[in-house]
Amino acid sequence: MKKESKYVAFSTQKGGAGKTTLTVLVASYLHYVKGYNVAVVDCDYPQCSIVEMRERDLKAVMEDEHYKLMAYEQFTAIGRKAYPVVSSTPETAVEVASELSQTGEFDYIFFDLPGTVNNPDVIRTLSQMDYIFSPISADRVVMESTLRFAVVLNQQLVTTGKAKIKGLYLLWNLVDGREKTELYDVYEEVIENLQLQVLKTFLPDSKRFRREQSSTHKALFRSTLFPADKTLVKGSNLDALTDEILELIK
């Protein structure tokens, strides 16, 4: 019996909130560390950042002996190929994902969508997600934009039952440890009053989230071919976040 893939998206209408990075980090962690079969549909057209990241990652492996050896050792250790990253437009994303799902191979298919709710194609695609996670930060512009986005989805799609969506969750990202906790308490009270849910795990504001493959061969964090380096995972909360998300979407 073929498994039914679950559709998951990190989505918001605010650029720079971290949805693309979160998609790559969680997809790679689930695939390479947790042993789940995942695929990514990059429909953030026309930039398709994850498709471009995969191309950079592959080029580094083909041209750099250090990463070539890493790839060989990883495949030898876990026997898993890289997960597919497929380019699409918002209007064809669900069709593309359906073709992947019909193979019966994938547990989870992640979508990287454009940051807008004004596009009917984006709304239709979002309505077919099983789970949506919207990154937020303690920035008034980001917060107001994301809350508007989440409220619209919740009121028009989730609570009405007009969509497949089983869960819509906010996710604290870029958390500055120097900020007073009272600020987050205030925001979380607003979130609760709007009848929205927020994950317990937060991600700190750290430069490690932008660290990719490079000629210096420093420990990498964001990659479509490798999981985040274990030394960098410590203190990043990526492992805890993935575990919490996994409990919700299983």
Q: Do you know the CATH topology?
A: Rossmann fold
Q: How many angstroms does the end-to-end distance come to?
A: 18 Å
Rounded to an integer in angstroms, the radius of gyration calculated over CA atoms is: 18 Å
The shape is: globular
List segments where confidence is low: pLDDT < 50 over at least 5 consecutive residues. Answer: none
Number of domains as seen in the coordinates = 1
Into which percent range does the helicity of residues fall? Answer: 40-55%
**Average pLDDT, all residues:** 91
Instruction: Please give the CATH architecture.
Output: 3-Layer(aba) Sandwich
Broad CATH class? Alpha Beta
DSSP summary: helix tally = 9
**Could you give the order of strands across the largest sheet?**
3-2-4-1-5-6-7
**Largest sheet geometry:** 7 strands, parallel
Portion of residues in beta strands equals 5-15%
Based on secondary structure, the structural category is: alpha/beta
Number of strands: 7
